[in-house]
Fold these 4 entries.
Entry 1:
Amino acid sequence: METNKLDDFTITTSGSIREAMVKITANKHRVVVVLDGKKVVGTVSDGDIRRALLRGVLSIAPVNNIMNVNCIVSQERDPEKLAEIIRKERVTVLPVVDQSSVLVDIFLAYEPLI
Amino acid sequence: MRKIALVTGSRGEYGYIRPVVCEIQKNPDLEYYIIATNLHLLSEFGSSIEEIERDGFKVSDRIYMALDGYTTASMAKSLGVFLMGITDVLTRIAPDFVLLAGDRGEQLMAAVAAAHMNIPIAHIQAGELSGNIDGMTRHAITRFAHVHLAASADAAQRLRQMGEQDFRIHLVGAPQLDDLLNPSYARPQDAMQQFRLDPGQPIVLLVFHSVTEEFDDAATQAGELLEAVSSMSLQTVAIFPNNDAGNVAIRQQLAQYRHPFIRIGRNVPRDVYAGLMSVANVMVGNSSSGLIEAPCFKLPAVNVGDRQRGRLRGKNVIDVTYDRNAITKAIRTALSEDFKHYLLQHCDNPYLGDGHVSHRIVQLLKGISVTEELMKKNLAF
């Protein structure tokens, strides 16, 4: 992924739920990857946000509180294999990491429609 | 109709009371009131109140208590918030019995309120030893409780030595073992799939909470532990700690030591947690479940540090200090074929569990007469 696009797909742990909603709206993939420094520590999806808001969590709360910490990441580099994981796990966004969980790239299920 | 109020603030306590609530439901002359508080209400800790509702139970009250900051001072102040809340809730419900479990501050506050309001208190897992502020809290609850429900002969004996009268002490067992023995928990394949575990490789279950007296050392302690675990590159499921002082440092360390082979659970539901225990090859950390529940699965537990100091333990527990080399060595021992064979032959659970503990507790609560003798405690010894 091009570096300028990466910004719409990542957020820090202290970023707000609202900020995540803005990024998800921009990236059109329903998910944003949460970073602690350079490490992937979770993902936040439209669904995670919807469930949190229904529970009464405010949109100014940090994504750290609601992110999916058991998210799917891969150390794979081969695009075909990554595509296979995306299909199997039914995710729209697959963070590619190195052996220390540092984000290397983000692999997408599809290109943005618009 | 006898009204029983129960207080739960975390997954651990919910495991104690869940089989008891199931049993209360079977009795038309008993009614339960679940009062949920602390971790159950926090998104950050997994909003486990949803698990109680998924089990089909009605939550009568929600008492929000946790002040942010998670220092030793905010912990104490949060308990003050809970004491005010529980007093109003008990006034409204007017229960015939308050059933408490374990050794947490919320339970002690409920004991303080109920005792002042002349409501009889029964206490699950009374008389045991544990390190940390929890150990003091457990024995303080004993002073307020009218009925002590012990999970081992050792605990019953300690209650007697504390000067508690014989007629108050009942050796019933550990109710949380009912769900494991009957059994009612996630299937192994489901637990593994949820964390994408490979059944062909050893599985480590890591649960590490802060020790309040060692609040300042939490980061170093978690660092030693995670250094050991990550150096072994074994597939690991690490569960977030509770919100005791020091938890923020532990969670920061978990982020620092994040590796693709370490999966994280924010707060896994009780049934999935038991499912993970059934597939794990070793538990590492300082959770009481390594001492009480793990023997049911003949699961080795590497118990780190002082949080469980003095607590009754079986042959599955290997005690170590906060030293990465000692921890690594203990994990190797725990995973060895020799130790596995040894446990198959010698691993008995020192805590009493026969699948009928909650039944006994509920029969007791149903039948016990609330007399002057029960309510006026004689603390002289």
Entry 2:
Amino acid sequence: MKLKKLTSVLLASAMLLTSLAGCGSKAADVATTDGGNTATQTTEAAASDGTMVIEIYDEAANYQGIQEGWFAKVVKDRFDIELNIIAPQVAGEAIYQTRTSTGNLGDIVLLDSVHLADCVKNGLVKDISGDLANYSNLAAYTEQISYYNSGLEGNNGEIYGIPTEMMNTSPTSYSQDVIYSSPLLRWDLYKELGCPEMKDLNDLIDVLAQMQAAHPTNEAGDPVYAMSLWPDWDGNDNMIGIANVVQLTTWYGEKIKGSAILNSDGATFSKITDKDKSYYKILQFLNHAYKAGIVDPDSGTQDWNAACAKMSAGQVNLMWYSWQVGFWNSQDRLDDGTAFIYIPVADQNYYTEADAYFGSGRAFGIGSGVDEAKYKKILEFLDWYASPEGCTFQHAGIEGFNYEVNADGTYTAINTNALMDNLPVPEEYGGAGYSDGNNAINQWIVGSSSINPVNGESYAKDYWSSWKESTLTEMKKEWQSQFGADEPAEYMKKNNKLVISPNVAVSLASDTPDMELARTECNKALCDNSWKMIFAKDDAEFDAMWDAMVETMNGVGYEELYAFDCEKYQVEVDAKNSYK
Amino acid sequence: MKKMNRKKKRGLREFLYVLPFIIMVALFCYYPLYGWRYAFYDYKPPYPLSSDSFVGTKWFSYMVSNPIRRKQILQVLLNTFGISGLNMIFSWFPMMFAIFLNEIKCKPYQKFVQTVTTIPNFISWVLVYSIAYCVFNSTGVVNTVLQNLGLTDTPVMFLQSSDHIWFKMWLWNTWKNAGWAAIMYIAAITGIDEELIDAAKVDGANRWKTILHITIPTILPTFFVLQFLNMANFLSNGMEQFFVFENSFNTDTIQVLDLYVYNLAMKSGGYSLSVAIGILKSLVSVVLLCIMNTISKLTRGEGFI
């Protein structure tokens, strides 16, 4: 009898404990806020050999978990730390909300400017102004760092964020060879038509239609379309509307900022719902293209992966992102002239951001919960991260595996397919696949086209003299003689087709709950109707849909949102114009 | 006195038995209700709730604050009622399916049909959509067959059209759930007394008459209880199915309440408004449940809660 009683009491208490185990995380949080030391000890204990684990809350990462492979070894050898990456792009945006509400976002945080400003206001990020001067590689960017932080509301000289992708050129120069978005066509197909001159978007549609008529299927027999769009990215990057359309508006010197269009004068705004502006123009271009039968009918329902597969299989004839060509342009295709390259359309002038002298907008910060030892370690790590050695690892890879050093100190790339094919890395450099072990933080303090003081060339291989020499193919030579310039960006500069917008990094106002909601609803109305308009039967239907859309958008608060965004981005525009 | 003590002790012990469950229910069902307070604030993480951000019933009136919003919320409600209603109207389908399944005399074939129809229940909606995309896209099986047969020149955009979308959604839902929903009825049918059926046969009833006069009347109570319970969930038709099938072309007719809340809250920060809608939804569901319970009491003489 007694035994029975004992068992029942034990069982009951066991169940009680199990049910309470669910609240475990809560208890841990309390420990974090009450005494930072207890929490740190537990995290440190997590690494088996006493290695310090640094948690990085990283809005740029596409990988979540402990950094592995060769980059993990590089970091461990130098600092005896492991990087634990927390990626909202993997875990979902809600992780930001939950982590901020517990008061500890991460040991290192990498945030966009709006989130950073919110976190600073709520005391989640540490002020590092007292220590910055002691770290020479970071201190080299003092001008940019203080400029960025002075934009934070109510700042009196504190330093919270270290901007990313900073360059050591100037805020108004443009040193890349290709711009982010421009019409890219297959050189062989274009040459086959006799390199016709294109005056405007209608001519572009004609050329694309002729290409498609000449080659209706790819080698596997699947249908080819001039363009295959995808809806997954709609409304991303603080720009409302269909992502593909939004990107093409830069072909006419305009740039979408939130819900407003920054005009090509770089000083005034227009509404995205304005019929004379580029959003309408591009949408109409896509509708005309659809009516010409050159838009993939699956565009509105397929996802990014399906679109990607079509690009790799040669089922599209027009690309518009500079990185998009990576799905097709292999060295073989560059050699035999079947690769994509920029083809000018006469009436276009392209908007592009100047060199990211002040950074790309995101910034690194240090969590306010770290203890003294960890704080020092993190600063050492970030300082190295911005050093020539750190930058070379990030942008060029491992010496002896990704590049060799020439007699004059410049580099020559080897194993150039390391990232694409995930080549195995020798054990001495850390093992595993190259791509698997690549730096998962996925954002740098120093931009890749910055100059490496060690040899006077850029960090990224694309601008090395050895690389340029090896990539000068027959196709490139033909292109150069056709358009009379060495590189696309040079052609644009020569012909006055480039609207370079000075690079600035300012802190922008964060949305109020009302504005946030209006933004979501306007974006949804705009995207849904835009997709329908691309597939509209005729111009009358197209315009009727546009008018109905504008009415809906106004009903869910577009006017207020536009006014809010004009004010919000005026700060940035003023900063840009101060450089003109 | 001693007896009293023992009784008390037993009571205490039994209370301890249920205590874990009480705690769990309190923790996971009642504690979250505390989150309802977010509906009365302008909430935006990481800013904590404060008296400055208290806005009263702003988010409740927001939903009906102008004609466009009223139109939107009405359309959403219409979709919700349409799709739930369609499911309700066809709710006899799994029951009939179970009855006919039971009539199959060849056991291996019966088991085979039952397994095949039950399996889709375990496939997630995301995968169902991948299958749908492969079958119905412009170069999918269906379009290829149609084009090869010369029935159409241009591919038919099945997934892109909003025609009969409620019915299509019901079809997908039935394909996925019918087998699973039939299990309950199959269990009820197995519980029927064999003697009843034998007696009916002796009286000259054929198979059809046995179904009509014995099987259906016996499992009807099960059917009603399930219907009443479903009634309480009238406003929640889940969001996964509609989320995966939603695209810009059919969003007007496919966006149900749950999906609307998701689109508002998770795609960006309309947390407070979503909580407000959630509260209204819960209240309406509770009222519906009570009404159904009363109806049940009046018609069947017993309630189900």
Entry 3:
Amino acid sequence: MAKLKDIFQDVKEVGQKNLVLLGNEAIARGIVELGVAGVFTYPGTPSSEIPTTLFHAKNLLKQKDYDLYLEWSTNEAVALESAYGFSFSGLRTVFICKHVGLNVAADAFLTLINTGVLGGLVMIVAEDPQMHSSQNEQDNRWYTKLANIPMFEPSDAREAKDMLKSAFEMSEEFETPVILRTVTRIAHSRADVPLNPITNPIIPNNMKLKIDPSRFVCVPENARKNKLRILDRVEQISKSITESTWNQIDQGSNKEYAIITSGSAYAYTREALNYLKLDFPLFKIGISHPFPKETIGGFLKANSTSTIVIIEEADFILETFIKKLAFEVNFSGKIVGRVEGVTPSHGELTTRKLLIGLSKVLKGEISIPSIPLPTDNFQFSRPPVLCPGCPHRATFYALNKAIPKRHRIVSTDIGCYTLGASPPLHAGHLVICMGSSLGIGSGISQLPNQTDPVVSIIGDSTFWHTGLPGLVNAVYNNSKLLLLIVDNSATAMTGFQPNPGEKLSITEAARGVGVKYVIEVDAFNPKSSLELIKEAVNNDGVSVIISKGECRIQYVRREGLPDTTYVVEPSRCVGCHTCINRIACPAIMWSDQKNSKGKVIPVIDQFLCARCGLCSQVCPYGVIVSKDAKEVVGE
Amino acid sequence: MNKMEYQIFLAGVGGQGILSVTDILCNAAVEMGFTVRGSETHGMSQRGGSVFSNVRFGNVHSPLIMERTADILLGFEPAEALRYAQFIKPAGYCLVNKHSIPSPSFILSKDTYPEINTIVTELKLYSRYVFAQDATKLATELGKPIMQNIIMLGSLSAVPDLPLTDNVLQMALKQQFKEPFYKLNLEAYNLGRAKFEEYLAQNLGNP
């Protein structure tokens, strides 16, 4: 990743210098080139590096007299509502979330799109085809059809920055929010990006808002007018984009086939055509909503004897609308796409997948390089795991000691601690979305004749995000459950963004909504917390245990590693393997030594060990002992 | 720009400094006037998981390398090199760190981690040149095991058809590290480079 001083460097001329940036860094740079004054977000992969880059550059921007209000909102609904409020200033405003974050914000989103806005408001929404870091695969282009909101679809990091400018211009001209859609392979991809000068926002000395209640109070009478407004607005935008260079046609030399593609799929399309050395007419759609009906109609007409090939990533939305349009304009040629197997129905698109798809519809042989068959079964998984020193591991160890795994129902939530659902911790039977642990747990606890204790697990940031209403609900409906809040004082999974826990107390919040039994325990002292967990599951109603232990990565970054480390004493180890089987810390491995009974002795990898000492508390024979780190690893 | 394209596939485990090497390669490529594209693992999958990064430059559009086309596979961990072996082209160079990092899933399931030599033999199925060294051991001898990534970068710098020059790569290395760390990293780079040059001298005539 690029250095902050490089990302936010001054350039005098437009496009003077190219810098290799991550898509998200390019967008962060774009935000300050365009004089954006407000950024509202809740972090979520693959969008998080946009606000995080800006957040880390706070002082740097201050030195440049750049006034940026950056808000880590408690959730995406609040973030969008706040961005909407801020945009009434006329100052450029950005809302950022991951694809599922738009679901959280959907209620606000689907109505504020009707009122429109008075200042530029761009919603940057990052999708995650293939679910690298997500719970579902969701094509948010469908939302544009539901909400009638314009959408820009960049095909790479460079375009993402350029399109942000066009998106603001459209937003301001037509008083509408606009979506800029990225996917993992844009957000987390790199490209050499030309830099334009940074433009500081011009903040008026005397901020006066002119808000017309007959438009912005969405009671039915006004809402009906707003419905007409949005229809008219989208009609006007439709007309305005017929000449847009973002919807661009390359005239090919070989007209046997003609291709229509958009956004992220364009890059793979170009790669595949280069590989095949084919030059077909190609329509690259950059603004996919309003659906560019006229331009696509013209393209169909111009290529009426060609087979039209539609290439898109994720769902077949273009295809659906193009096939409908073909019917309306009496296009009699052939149109092929997802239905014919050109693109896969799930997962992210790749050049190879596309070549395989094209081989189904293009005439003639396509040679796709074959992959050698392995000579042996080398399958080995390396799933993400809780880090060495993670406080969640200690909490789940205590939970497992307190309540037998077979006799409990555990609903967990979204965060690092979701990884605790894997063996050997098994701390989680269910997880769907942010904040769901409480609702699911509460629902199960209301079942008649279900006697196993119900435990809901949630992290600090997720608790503030959408856990709180679930807690209120559980208290109000007298659900019998133990809420285990794993408070690591960080939004760790997405890269250490701050959350309300910096200033607010979870304990006070839980007491405030009426929970009688609220206690805090030290995550790194599992012996004491397991007794309290045992006690709490027998309580009636809702009990809350807050297991506090700072994210070890955050702690070590600030404080450095402790001077005391832990080692297995090989001469005393009985080879029971409790350490490995109970906590599975990545730093504990098999050594090549055996004890006198022939049992393999575990060893602690001092390079990976974060020196939390959990293993020494877990070892039933006390053979994992603390040692001066200098003696063990040297300086 | 001509029609050439060059692709480097980096594979390893979260925390091995793969993104740092990616930075250096990208900065060197843009310094030499190439169009650059790449993609990498961030977020959840990074937590001790399998991590890869793609660097492509020249006449490129997509951020991802297609299977069987990478010019170089730089494996920071042997099992991870093998996981992504299908990306290397048959005439490509596979450079791999022999130091293994078993994951808890290996440990729990009591699966045995494949023999390093078996992995190296298997890698030869995919590419003509396979160069394996214990970069972690070399880096530990230099004083910092984490520098195995720069040793691997140094080895990569000596790949015969690499369009990035030693000079520009060293400049990018200097850009990446603050002064006190730069010297040691340069030492690691030069050591890695020398090791691969040695291999080339012995093997290139008769691979």
Entry 4:
Amino acid sequence: MGNITLNKVSKSFGTTHVIKDIDLAIDDGEFVVFVGPSGCGKSTLLRLIAGLEDVSSGKIMIDGTDATGLAPAKRRLSMVFQSYALYPHMSVRQNIAFPLKMAGNDKAVIDKKVGDAARVLNLTDYLDRKPRQLSGGQRQRVAIGRAIVREPEAFLFDEPLSNLDAALRVNMRLEISELHQQLKTTMIYVTHDQVEAMTMADKIVVLQAGRIEQVGSPLDLYKHPANRFVAGFIGSPKMNFVEGAEAKRHDASAIGVRPEHLDISTTDGLWKGKVGVSEHLGSDTFLHVHLDGAGPNDETITVRTGGEVMLAHGDTVYLTPQADKIHKFDAQGLAIK
Amino acid sequence: MARAVSTRRKITFTIIGWTVGLLIFFPVLWTILTSFKTELDAISIPPKWIFFDWTLENYATVQERSNYFRFMMNSVYLALGSTALGLIFAIPAAWAMAFSPTPRTKDVLLWMLSTKMLPAVGVLIPIYLIFRDWGLLDSRVGLIVVLFLINLPIMVWMLYTYFKEIPGEILEAARMDGASLSKEITHVLAPMSVPGIASTVLLSVILAWNEAFWTLNLTTSNAAPLTTFIASYSSPQGNFYAKLSAASTLAIAPILILGWFSQKQLVRGLTFGAVK
């Protein structure tokens, strides 16, 4: 069972408080993603769970027992590092076998488990190569292989895809999700990429400046962001925020509308503006519309429309937010229900 | 990227390089040449360069008068013993400084190195007295400990610069994979830093082999290495230059050969981290 509970966990480096009083419960078999801008403490939080850093205060429970003071190896967790951290002097086979060897398994068991892992990860033909002879994606798979042979309580991933090129990243994302479906083991995954978070997670933990901003399922965060930070961080392109009179009309200090929740018309609508840059993705078009005086503010609003909309730079358009999709925020930036 | 260097510059630098190299090597060359001369030729003025009566009599005399092999074995024991002991302490020390540095790590390193700037004679009396009281005078064990201690700062420093180049995540991965501290060092860190450890060992062996101050002061016969062997041939009277040269040549030959075969490794080790 791989349930993990954090109880008032804090971490300071000298006088810098990196993690502030975090409470979090992760259920067995969940795929949890820690997401946030760089420097938000997400990697540190993962390293605290791994035991690579000691907590300054608070408790970490793994599988019901207090693991706060346990050495990393005793926590029965496996970690996949951003740099893969493969042992360069060992072959792929030796890399994957290393945790089993450290655990004192005998050779027959090691050979079988390494063989199984290699088959799952399509590494069978590469077992006798050294890491430097492999491509980025293959190295990543070796790192995952090394993690799965231990049959850990949970997997920890520290930005594992950020060293891969875009196409490979999408593939590996799917492979990791697939692996989670097969193994049904708890996975904690750190990323700064909200697309990775949205597509992979059962549960997303949004962090900022060492605190949890919100915890929830991807759609939950998308539909009901708890504050402006989460609203702006989750979703691509970003949510549009409008302040001033237009927000007052909704009894809020700011309102947020996602680019996909704006109706666009060339004849009439609530906000008038001129088309600026259009980004054509084929399936979608992102229009950056500069609102003029008639609208709420002189702001630029991003609108997501179908791929076939052909508007030229400087064309006048009217935007109308879908009434039930407007997010309202108070002066502190908290969502008004 | 290679820079274009004009032929003239190349020639100039080649000449300078060879001049400096020959200047440094000249004393060694002269010693070797002198060892094949008769005592009379050795002191003749003007000096005889190559056209003298080549003779092996000095080597025969040296071998007759003293047991070269016993001195050499002492040198081997001291060099290898102090180096092995040094590795046992320097690897964990460098590991700690490279992978869990504190704000004072750099100070500690500099302080360790600063002990090398102290004139050795400054601590000769206390160490001599300790050796006398503990019955370590003229013992290999005592000398191994002294040589180990004087070379330790350099070994730690060299290993530290090597270990710094190894990404910490790899050691963390080993820790996650269940490696104990000792296994982390023996299975991951040490194999990854074989070139660095090899250079460190070479340097330590060479320094210990060449160490004369402590070996001369703390030994008489039993534990005396080749440095003492050379010194025993310098006497204030009589003709001894050729014999002294023969003894010196015999003493430096093993380390010269070792150095020659390992020069690439050694240079790489000493300049490691300097250029990226």
